[in-house]
Amino acid sequence: MKHNVILVVLDGLNFEVARLAMGHLQAYVSAERAALYKLTCELPALSRPLYECILTGVPPIESGIVHNNVSRLSNQRSVFHYARDAGLSTAAAAYHWISELYNRSPFVIARDRHTLAGDLPIQYGHFYWSDHYPDSHLFADAESLRVAHKPNFLLVHPMNIDDAGHKHGLDTAQYRNSARSADIILADYLQGWLQAGYQVLVTADHGMNNDRSHNGLLPEEREVPLFVLGDAFSLNPDVMPKQLELCGTICELLGVAHDKPLCRELLRPAP
Questions:
Q1: What is the pLDDT, as a whole number, of residue 144?
Q2: Structurally, what CATH architecture does the domain formed by 4-266 represent?
Q3: Are 201 and 250 in contact (CB under 8 A)?
Q4: Within its chain, how far is the Cα of 63 from the centroid?
Q5: Residue boundaries of the structural domains of the chain
Q6: What's the CA gap between 183 and 166, in Å, rounded?
Q7: E runs forming strands in the chain
Q8: Distance of CA 157 to the CA centre of its chain
């Protein structure tokens, strides 16, 4: 069965902070309407390489996107490409590196900030370039795309948690409160998304450390959450999904042909 999908990537969100600070998402888990899993991010634990990893299922050392300064179009097949090949519609409210990876590189503000281009992998987009761009605005951007265009696949990618981590570090009130704020903003949208039939995944690219950075092997840098919500998920607590499997799993939800690894146990068996 084909489903519409929303993928929320909360940039820089550590697993333990997500587990303890995100009360609205955890309310769904407590009600057995969602599940929370721990993922270990691929290496290096940097943003642009892991955007590519999440959206293509290819690790950085194979994709060639090995650090944040590799600024070019991806040479891999992403969820956006598979969806478009199947005639589905795509949208993203995201950091401008997403536009550079899958639409056009380099990012040109006047051309790419607001994207309406049926021939591109991401057809409808609102892209930002300041790390302090408010999460509240970003979620509003995403919802405007959803309401206006009803995309089959929507990426929602705010940056304030990562920004707080780089400014203050992992074990700080500012970082934890930024996660709490994102959870509260999500509360304004989640029920509507689910009622509209979307399957929702909420995850992160990487975590954060007390040095106000990330790139190494510390668990707090590599362990990230994956919340799944929607009737297409098994909610099996024993499943152990991998970050590399998100692309293929989303393609399965969308019902599109792909050649990516996936976590089939994450999904409810077809009737």
A1: 98
A2: 3-Layer(aba) Sandwich (3.40)
A3: yes
A4: 18
A5: 4-266
A6: 19
A7: 4-9, 34-40, 90-95, 114-116, 124-128, 153-156, 198-203, 223-229
A8: 6
